[in-house]
Amino acid sequence: MLLHNNVTELILLGLTQDPAKKKIIFVLFLFFYLCTLVGNLLIIITIKTSQTLGSPMYFFLFYLSLSDTCFSTSIAPRMIVDALLKNNTISFNECLFQVFSLHFFGCLEIFILVLMAADRYVAICKPLHYTTIMSRRVCSILVTVAWVGSCVHSSVQIILALSLPFCGPNVIDHYLCDLQPLLKLACADTYVINLLLVSNSGAICTVSFVMLMFSYVIILHSLRNHSAEGRRKALSTCISHIIVVILFFGPCIFIYTRPATTFPMDKMIAVFYTIGTPLFNPLIYTLRNAEVKNAMRKLWSKKVISEY
């Protein structure tokens, strides 16, 4: 617990205080969350059981779906339950845990997307050296580094939160705990902390986004030398990745790269990357990927045959 901290619990106002709208939110986001779980778990099971999805791209996709599942689970269940309650309170320690998990799995998703872009770059631009550069050992090391880096990033968020005194009030105008809403409750000057937040979360989002878009520009430019079939397949994969990147990084950059001011639209924009991205990722990667769809069909047919 914090030194000079008089706040033991916080009140989350959620997306709305209207009882009728809260019921709609409950039904809508319960549906979204269940679809997110089903879609991502289906990808995880398919990749783990399929013999045809053994390439590094699907190795990284497995961890992307895993991080999506955990990322959504760190936010959605409490948001759904709170929609049924009149008083949405959360203990200060639970709030810090949500901050940690939100940033841990969010940062992990960013790093995995960077690794997926690197994988596509090597596969398309250096195909002769692909198996050597992106070996299973190298991929495992890269994913381990991503996990460690995410842990360091989220630990920094907690350290920043613990450095602030909280004397009251204890009302957060949001549906989740994050460092920015907490800064508004601190009874101290938060200018330096906000600069550290922007230089940490904001820098990770912005630098990663620029790197990703630059790498995909290089990849798309290099496709002109490929055959029509190879170009079509690579283009389909890259477009899927670019859609995911824009959906995830657009809202993140808006939230984390500005001074500590809040706008009425912040909560709805946060919905895009906390609820929307984990929901859309399975759809984007399955609907645009023939190999994943074929592997899912084989998995389903094996399941049906085994039942009879």
From TrEMBL:
The keyword Cell inner membrane does not apply. This is Olfactory receptor. It holds the Pfam family 7tm_4. It is a multi-pass membrane protein. CDD domains: 7tmA_OR4A-like. It is found in: Cell membrane; Membrane. Gene3D superfamilies: Rhodopsin 7-helix transmembrane proteins. Residues 39-285 form the G-protein coupled receptors family 1 profile domain. Its main location: membrane. Keywords: Cell membrane, G-protein coupled receptor, Membrane, Olfaction, Receptor, Sensory transduction, Transducer, Transmembrane, Transmembrane helix. The lineage of its organism: Eukaryota, Metazoa, Chordata, Craniata, Vertebrata. The chain crosses the membrane at residues 24-45, 57-76, 96-118, 138-160, 201-223, 235-256, 268-287. The keyword Transmembrane helix applies. Belongs to the G-protein coupled receptor 1 family.
